[in-house]
Design a protein that fits this description.
The protein contains ten helices and no strands. It is mostly helical.
Length: 206
Amino acid sequence: MTELITNRTPPTTTRATNGRNRNALYFGLITINKNSHYLPKWQKHVISLIITPFLSLCVWAQTPKPQTPETEFVNEALKLMSDSSANYTQAIVYWEKAAKANPQQPLYSYELAYCHYELKQYEKSIEVLKKTIGKYPNLINANYYRLLGNAYDLVGKPDKAVDTYTQGLAKFADAGELYNELGGMYYKQGNNDKAVDYWEQGVDNA
């Protein structure tokens, strides 16, 4: 079966230069604007929305024929997510079918959680991601922790979000996006020094 792209990291920004100062803080704000969920409603995850389906679609478009039911389910789901009028509700149906066809592929559960997230069904997204992380600890990447942390934050559980990002970093110490998310959490709390510390580490691990 065609290998899927599972590392969908967003573009990075230019490194701030003068340590813990306004430049570093500015970098953090730019990072928030581009790479995290601390955005106005209409901008939220715009980078992921554009890049994620496109990259996955490119991979699956190369799948040799005849296609299996599993690849057909995935193709249908990706088509439903690939344009401005994305139908996440219907995509969920196909991701669930794909997951049943191949229970050992955690990416399907990630995409399922992502659809729930975009539908603002954050609790359902949390449920799916917690189960997936627990079931496939060696087959996932930092994005699972990032999405889970974001969902926790959006249901008003910032402490859970911080814990989740921190757990992700314990496993993926070079995941710059998790440092960026932690920086965003501390920035929201008014702890600029700690925010800058994490944003600088995000740059170092970009």
